[in-house]
Design a protein that fits this description.
Elements (H helix, E strand, L loop, with lengths): L1 H20 L8 E7 L2 E7 L13 E7 L5 E2 L5 E2 L9 E9 L11 E2 L29 E5 L8 E9 L8 E12 L7 E7 L5 E3 L18 E3 L14 H5 L2 E13 L3 E10 L10 E10 L7 E8 L8 E4 L3 E2 L9 E9 L9 E6 L4 E12 L3 E2 L9 E6 L3 E7 L18 E10 L8 E9 L5 E10 L3 E11 L13 E10 L5 E3 L1 E5 L3 E7 L3 E9 L2 E29 L4 E28 L5 E9 L3 E3 L4 E12 L4 E11 L4 E11 L1
Parallel strand pairs: 13-17, 19-28, 23-24
Antiparallel strand pairs: 1-2, 2-5, 3-4, 3-6, 6-7, 8-9, 9-15, 10-14, 10-16, 11-15, 12-14, 16-17, 18-20, 20-26, 21-25, 21-27, 22-26, 24-25, 27-28, 29-30, 29-41, 30-32, 31-35, 32-35, 33-35, 34-35, 35-36, 36-37, 36-38, 36-39, 39-40, 40-41
Length: 665
Amino acid sequence: MKKYCTLLLCFCSFIPLFAQVIPSDTVPAIIQYKTENGITKFTSELRPLRPIAGAPAPFYTYFWEFGDGNFSFEENPSHIYTTRRDSILVRLFATNNYDDGKRPPTRPKPIVRPPTLPKPAVTKPMLASNYNLFKMGGNIEMKTNCMPKPGDEMMLVFGYRNKPENGQQQLNGTIAIMYNDVEFNKNNFELVAARTYNNEKTADLKPLLNSALYRQSKNPVYYASLDHETYPTLEKVLLKDQAKAFKNQQSWKFSDLQQNEERFVFMQFKTTPEMLKDTNAVVRISGAFIPDNPLVETEFFTLELQIVASHDPNKMVLRKTRMNYRLTGKKREMSYKVRFQNTGKGPAKKVDVGVNIAEVFDASTIKVVKTKPEVITCDSAYTGQSCLKTFVKADSVHFVFSNVYLPGTQQKGVNDADSTQGFVEYKIRFKEKPPKLPIKSGAAIVFDKNEPIYTNNATGRFKMGLSPGIIVGYGFPFETNKNEYVSQKNIVLGATLSPYASHRYYWQVELYVNSFKESSVIIPLETGIRKDTVINNNAYQILDKQAYNRIKVATINAVPAQMRYNLNKYVGLGIGALIGVDIYNRTIPELRYKLRTVSANGVVTDIDFNRDLAQVKESFSEIRTSFFGDIQLGLVRVGPAIGFRYLYDPKTNSNNMATYLSWKF
């Protein structure tokens, strides 16, 4: 008994140790609320954040869905419920930034309705933070609570309204969401849930695809990037053309949208585990606002979202990370954007964004496209004015925001996270056509005199592309059975296929076909024979008799696997295996005679006489394998080159040297 008690005490002593190693990532966000005088105040309990070594202090960002069609991005928001509903479920989506754990799961919290509800005074959301979603001034706008991370959830707020400029007291129409870009093979998003609060009805978008037009440049089409930018369009675009860019879509009919009324749809996306793993890639989600009234123009709003490996507000993004190398030249512009956020307790007056420049770029071609905060260049600013100074060092460029006011997320009185964020977007060109290698750039961001914050590396990669080619070879062995006929050196025509302009290692396949050829093999017989024979009733004396085999062969040779390596753009090496197959092999045995005849008047005449025997035909009768190594000289990536190839046949222990000319396109 004493023994078991001792074991029990030992086990109990280890329980605290087990509790320490149990992961806390599965603990959901705990929502707490209190209602006083018709105002409901919300707070939450979240798992402790775990700092990442070398990273800024971790923090949470918040998205609250109040269950009545309203929302907030505050940490501890207050809300006034103005409508009665049978059930109200509040959801909190907390995102952990600079934290090495998973996001806290969301667990809806039922809200007990207050006994009396205040009379609504306005139709706009009753939010304590007074968060204004429609910053672009359009009828539609969207915002997410975070950048997509493979396997995570992402919330999207889809807002639409009837602004006074429409001149309509009320509107009916359709709203639509389009997602999963067709340019990616795999789906990036799955729409798990869409919560509507204003009697929106699920609808079919197809009948509208041929009729709805997006607005023209005089009324700009709204695009949202990582920071809500606008890009004008120059011509009308059919809605169906926009829909073709996406694999999935969902639409709803709305009605009785009053002037100045704002409505919101909440969409919960699950980012698939198969999501594109390229954390430099930008995916899109597009929304459309299609009024039934033709006097109100259709609008759309496109979110550009960077795929992330971790939630970090300081990011570097390269647009169009996958490039076609054939179309990449010296004049091609690359567009980069560096996003930053002041996560401190006070405002920043100076922000230094330093970006390392890859050797392939010409730093003198840097052109700043847009900034936030929006400032002028320091060259044209007066003393003390907010401005941007750009200066280039040996391998980097610095974009320095001076005399600005960028609030901190932990600063008192700051509730709008967008006000703490900024960015610089710039374009740059190549010095010359670059090598076909990944292009990496990263940034270091310094707020005032604090330690630098390092971003991810924005990596540009070239698509593989295919390079067909032609090849003419001399000396390739097609027959190796020397007991039957003599091997000949042949001129052959072939084709190659490989990745386009590979820089170093690459695979290549080859295919050759030779024309029909004929050879005669002598089979020795007795000579000097003195026998008589009769041909066509004429008597002949046989002087000589020999047997021949006439052979016709058609052969295909293929190189199914060849590894090549380019030392530089002029010299390349390769090793591989060549497989030969006789697709046609015909052998015609033949007897050849020398005959003599003597006429009645004594004239002697010698003639030749040939006689064919039964021929033998074979198809795919033999497969031969040779191994080779070679060297190429010339424009080995794209263009003409000459090659020298040594081949060895282990079956017959024979070897051969071949020469060839190739041209890759």
